[in-house]
Design goal:
The chain has 378 residues and is α/β, with parallel strands linked by helices. It is built from twelve helices and twelve strands.
Length: 378
């Protein structure tokens, strides 16, 4: 029955971004829907009047007439009152969500949208449209509860961003005092080692805070790398120095084979990517082992590989581990490899912001994380 309904359903996609339109068309047509595309607000209104769609997928930010205005105009049309409208936006914040509801939207998706999620939201919108009058009151109640939950989630995310931002200053102050202690030549050796350990943990905490901030920026579409030529050997050497205390505490040797002299990237983001990868490798590597960083150039890309000989990651988990808060409990040998569940999400977002890709491979033994960045310089 669902397939029959999908074949009859016509979806109007209004988005000024060509890639977004192409993805939406390919995704929805694969599910049996008829798809009509519009490149902007005015064109979308004309297409709505001409094709009478069963559902509208509508971008928020467009030149000229934006998505909110398009939605309001559709709702004012005789055939527009009951047509489900699913908003797409890169702005994951409470103000945008409330504006979408006020304009008359039925659902709210944040970019980048996963194809499966888009299909599910469209399917739900179409099913709800077909509810008879006796179920409408129940639907409105469920919808209000859903909207309240979404608003609460956005409020929590905003509060989290504020708290994380405010924590940066005291954490930075602790780091500064640890550095002052380390510069004191009269400090006893044991106290010096303690100060070095404090600074190492503080730097780890700062990385976690920055990861949280950048994840929030990415969800709002504001994680934009400032690209420049980065000296890759110097960057890796600096990261080795920063994580030296942590590595020595476990008798782990840090080795590198950096065959690429330069890469086009955001220097701060790339350094943090490498720091996070190395910190993760050191955490999971066994004592008295080696963690390696290697680079190579392949097919116009710079490939950075970080490997350890710790517990591997089960093949079934190698895609899901890059989701927020996903942790590996154990592999097929019963060995645990866990973490905070945030660093990996940051790696993927930061690498993809560069137009690159990150993957995980079996190290036999251990794990290899591979980062590929485009446009390797000569």
């Amino acid at each position: 029955m669902l397939e029959t309904l999908q074949e009859k359903a016509r979806i109007l996609v209004v988005d000024d971004n060509e890639q977004n339109r192409a993805l939406a068309r390919a995704t929805l047509e694969e599910e049996g829907y008829e798809v009509v595309l519009a490149t902007g607000g005015e064109e979308g209104l004309e297409a709505f009047a001409a094709c009478a769609p069963s559902c509208v997928v509508l971008d928020v930010r467009m030149p000229g007439v934006d998505g909110f205005e398009v939605c309001r105009r559709i709702r004012a049309l005789p055939a527009g009152g009951d047509t489900p409208i699913v908003f797409l936006t890169a702005q994951r914040d409470l103000d945008t969500f409330d504006a979408a509801l006020r304009a008359g939207g039925d659902d709210f998706l944040t970019k980048p949208v996963r194809p499966t999620e888009l299909v599910l939201r469209v399917q739900v919108a179409l099913r709800l449209r077909r509810l008879n009058a006796s179920n409408r009151e129940y639907y409105e109640l469920v919808r209000r509860q859903r909207d309240d939950l979404m608003r609460l989630q956005l409020q929590k995310e905003r509060l989290s961003a504020f708290v994380v931002h405010d924590l940066k200053n005291p954490v930075g102050t602790v780091d500064l005092h640890a550095q002052l202690l380390l510069r004191d030549k009269e400090l006893p050796a044991r106290a010096h080692a303690t100060a070095a350990a404090i600074r190492d943990e503080v730097r780890s905490l700062m990385r976690l805070l920055l990861n949280l901030l950048d994840i929030s920026k990415s969800e709002e579409g504001r994680l934009a790398p400032a690209l420049a030529d980065v000296d890759l050997p110097a960057l890796v050497a600096g990261v080795f120095e920063a994580l030296g205390v942590r590595a020595r505490a476990k008798a782990i040797s840090l080795e590198s084979a950096i065959l690429t002299k330069s890469v086009r990237a955001d220097a701060d983001l790339l350094r943090r990517i490498v720091e996070n990868l190395l910190e993760n490798a050191i955490r999971h590597a066994p004592e008295d082992s080696v963690v390696r960083v290697t680079t190579a150039e392949r097919d116009g890309e710079v490939e950075i590989r970080v490997s350890d000989t710790g517990a591997g990651i089960p093949e079934a988990m190698r895609e899901t581990i890059f989701e927020r808060f996903v942790q590996v409990e154990s592999n097929e040998r019963g060995v645990t490899r866990s973490g905070r569940g945030l660093g990996l999400a940051f790696w993927r977002l930061a690498v993809e912001a560069h137009g690159g890709h990150i993957s995980v491979e079996e190290g036999a033994p251990g794990t290899v994380f591979c980062v590929r960045l485009p446009h390797a310089p000569e």
